Recover the amino acids of this structure.
């Protein structure tokens, strides 16, 4: 007869993920151990493995664990069933319709940007980024939109070996990066001027729910089409999209992008 008893190690993994999903802001190791009635020494190897695989993230400052980007990617197939993700997708589509350029959604994971969603335009454009890929946040508009919300020390901590440079247009110094991040805070959006790919210019804005950063939204323009007029058009559209999304999302107590 088949054994239907739950597999205890599997149950422990699921318990950890479910408890993290329940509490906005995450939990400490002690809180997790108490919540699932296990010792810290027992669950720490499990948590470390989940962190390495991206299913859990840890805030370096608070020590709190939260659901990681791999959970977002697993849930991607069901994203249309989530009301908030559906609203974001519909808004991204409106941005694409207005600009006729590709729109992407990403989150910060460590020192990288992780691409979660992409809405194609009617024009065929080859991008180096795709859903599930990662690039250094400092070299992307999505990443800089999110890094601009961190203090200089926290940003520098992310890159102990210096800024990674992907193209000949990339920035090499933290001083140059901080200058760009100051520009982001001043004008409200970030720019990647051929720093991630020499073929594209990207503009991005961060998205928030009641003061908490959720993700960033970007539009990618082929470099040959990225005139000043075009960039101003795109900037206007993504700023409008952010205003609309944050107005809608801020009516909810909890927002999940999974």
């Amino acid at each position: 007869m088949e054994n239907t008893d739950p597999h205890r190690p599997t149950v422990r993994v699921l318990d950890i993920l479910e408890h993290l999903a329940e509490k906005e802001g995450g939990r400490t190791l002690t809180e997790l151990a108490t919540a699932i009635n296990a010792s810290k020494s027992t669950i720490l190897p499990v948590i470390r493995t989940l962190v390495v695989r991206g299913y859990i993230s840890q805030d370096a400052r608070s020590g709190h664990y939260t659901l990681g980007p791999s959970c977002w990617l697993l849930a991607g197939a069901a994203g249309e069933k989530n009301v908030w993700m559906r609203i974001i997708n519909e808004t991204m589509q409106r941005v694409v319709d207005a600009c006729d350029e590709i729109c992407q959604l990403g989150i910060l994971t460590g020192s990288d940007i992780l691409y979660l969603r992409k809405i194609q335009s009617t024009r065929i454009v080859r991008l180096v980024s795709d859903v599930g890929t990662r690039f250094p946040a400092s070299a992307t508009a999505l990443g800089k939109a999110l890094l601009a919300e961190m203090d200089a020390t926290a940003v520098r901590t992310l890159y102990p070996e210096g800024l990674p440079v992907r193209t000949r247009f990339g920035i090499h110094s933290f001083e140059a990066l901080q200058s760009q991040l100051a520009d982001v805070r001043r004008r409200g959006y970030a720019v990647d001027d051929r720093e991630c790919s020499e073929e594209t210019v990207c503009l991005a804005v961060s998205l928030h729910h009641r003061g908490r950063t959720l993700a960033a939204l970007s539009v990618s323009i082929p470099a040959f089409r990225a005139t000043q007029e075009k960039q101003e058009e795109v900037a206007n559209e993504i700023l409008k999209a952010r205003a609309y999304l944050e107005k809608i999302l801020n009516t909810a107590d909890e927002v999940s992008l999974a």
